[in-house]
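Please, structure for the following, as tokens.
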Amino acid sequence: FRETRVALTSSEICYGFNDIAGQAVLSISSKTRRHLSRIMGCLYEDHCLWNDASDLSEKFSISQWLEKSGLLKNAEMCREILEKAFESSFVACEVHGAAFLGSSCLRAFRLGDANGTAVDSHNVSPTITK
């Protein structure tokens, strides 16, 4: 399955990880939203996918991972959608999708320290630290 994850994160295919994140929020099926959010979580947590180094012994870079994976962008999108839950008109499936995807983003971020790299909250967007 590693080859599939690599293909999804490359720019060589028409349907990539950003499309999966979008579908995780916009799908009308709750089961689909949960599964696609979990897929994004698995992609985010596989740090080797986001490391440019051909030498896997090179230290993992949190900032490089956050930039390349789009994790912060997706977390920000989820935050904006979840804020709409307090308005009189909101779309329940989007709110549920944002909750599922947002939780995958947060879990991946928390586990980002797994390679011994200290997470410095001063170098991270306020989106993740809220």
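The mean pLDDT is 79. The two ends are 33 Å apart (CA to CA).
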